Amino acid sequence: MSNLLTSRQAEELHKSLIAYLSSCGYTDASQAVRDAVNLPDTTLDPATTKKYEGLLEKKWTSVVRLQKKIMDLEARAAHLQTELDSATPSSLAARRNHDPKTWLPRAPARHTLQSHRQPITSLAFHPLFSSLASGSEDCTIKIWDYELGELERTLKSHTKPVLDVDYGGPRGATLLATCSSDLTIKLWDPSDEYKNIRTLPGHDHSVSSIRFIPSGAAGAPTSGNLLASASRDRTIRIWDVTTGYCLRTLRGHTDWVRSLSPSPDGRYLASTASDQTARVWDLSLPDSAALKQTLATAHTHVIETCAIAPAPTYPHLAALAGQKKPPPTSSSAEYVATGGRDKLIKLSTTTGLVFKTLVGHDNWIRALAFHPGGQYLLSASDDKTIRCWDLAQEGKCVRVIEAAGHFLSCLRWGPSVYKDSAIAAGAQDGGAGVNGEEAKETIRCLVAVGSVDLGVRVFSA
């Protein structure tokens, strides 16, 4: 020890040892150390002993704390080095400039929101305000202010786990829809302190997914008064939220329908199920002819999630599919992504051609979201990670985000904002806005994931 410590440091350590042993009642040991180091009583009187008696414990806990901090920093450095090794010129430029079209989330999360007492099952962003709804197996829905990272309110009405949530509804009258294992769908009015305004019964088993169906055709699509729901009773139902009536029931899946994804113009609806198929429905046709295509997407297990690709992805997906020319942007539901319990993500045309399989996750795929800019696809998995796939680089995984301490159950990208509002209104009603102008889309750099660890994490630029 004399080789490592100066004489002053050694004396301080000896005093601390003797004082610690004395304070613990080890008088003989304290005296033995005092004799061994030849420390006179005048040097370590009772007042000095009192001063030194807690010093050794403080130093010990400080060392442990610093060791943990060092380990955390080393892990962070290793994570950043991994990102740097897989960085591309476009991703580096995106980080420098925060270009919304190429922005991707990165750890750590801006906020970790905790209040639920059971695993999170679903998330939804309010289309205009800084509100985020989360559903949970604790039978509640919580409304958060994701900019402040604060809980605003808790909604209680469901009697069993809440399985999905979604914002939408008639323009100017946004609603929150929730569905549950209690066989019901509930509608809440955010403008009236989230009053439960309607309950929609009708399904014969757990309602596993709900999505508002957009009413606009191009430009700035918004939701209308139609809501689609998927259930373990193997059906998909279309509801009018203004009356509460079930308008139609779509049948075709032979097992539990797990997820829904409407096209941006609201004409098509994709669904996935435990029967290992995805299906695309044309909602403009009568029930008997609504099933446009059954996609046997080569998944070998339950398909948990799907996402219809928006028009900005067409140039990249067309190249991946070997098509010489991308489809026109006016066309909707050209491509669909599916993810399942076989740990795979499949990219398919809606005519049934699987043209790319994305491999990388080590557990079930729970959620998918296309980047509004069109270049990336994000996925969340039970392997606790978010993965970002670059569609311009043949689907290469360009970022892995260790997002939570347990399974990830859901992922949502914040909805884009459209301006000018008058132009947007025109675009929502028919495509081009007033004076033939198109509504300008502002992409939000905003992603949220929910986890079995009871936390909601918000990532933003």
What would you say this structure looks like, in words?
- The structure is a single chain.
- With 461 residues, the protein is of the alpha+beta class.
- The chain folds into two domains: 8-87, Mitochondrial Import Receptor Subunit Tom20, Chain A (Up-down Bundle), CATH 1.20.960.30; 98-416 and 443-460, 7 Propeller (Methylamine Dehydrogenase, Chain H), CATH 2.130.10.
- The chain is 20% helix and 39% strand.
- A four-stranded antiparallel sheet has the order 1-30-29-26, with no helix packed on it. Strands 2-3-4-5 form a four-stranded antiparallel sheet, with no helix packed on it. A four-stranded antiparallel sheet has the order 6-7-8-9, with no helix packed on it.
- A hairpin with a 5-residue loop joins strand 14 and strand 15 (268-273).
SSE topology sketch:
Blueprint lengths: L6 H17 L3 H10 L9 H7 L2 H31 L3 H9 L13 E4 L5 E6 L5 E6 L3 E6 L4 E7 L5 E7 L6 E6 L4 E5 L5 E6 L6 E8 L8 E9 L3 E6 L4 E7 L5 E6 L5 E6 L4 E5 L8 E5 L7 E6 L5 H7 L14 E6 L3 E6 L4 E6 L5 E6 L5 E6 L3 E6 L5 E7 L5 E6 L3 E3 L1 H10 L9 E3 L3 E6 L3 E6 L1
Antiparallel strand pairs: 1-30, 2-3, 3-4, 4-5, 6-7, 7-8, 8-9, 10-11, 11-12, 12-13, 14-15, 15-16, 16-17, 18-19, 19-20, 20-21, 22-23, 23-24, 24-25, 26-29, 27-28, 29-30
- The gyration radius over C-alpha positions equals 29 Å
How are the strands of the largest sheet arranged? 1-30-29-26
End-to-end Cα distance: 50 Å
What is CATH's topology name of the largest domain? Answer: Methylamine Dehydrogenase, Chain H
Number of strands: 30
How many structural domains does the protein architecture include?
2
CATH H-level superfamily of the largest domain? YVTN repeat-like/Quinoprotein amine dehydrogenase
Show unreliable segments: 217-221, 420-437
User: Average pLDDT across residues?
Assistant: 86
* CATH structural class of the largest domain: Mainly Beta
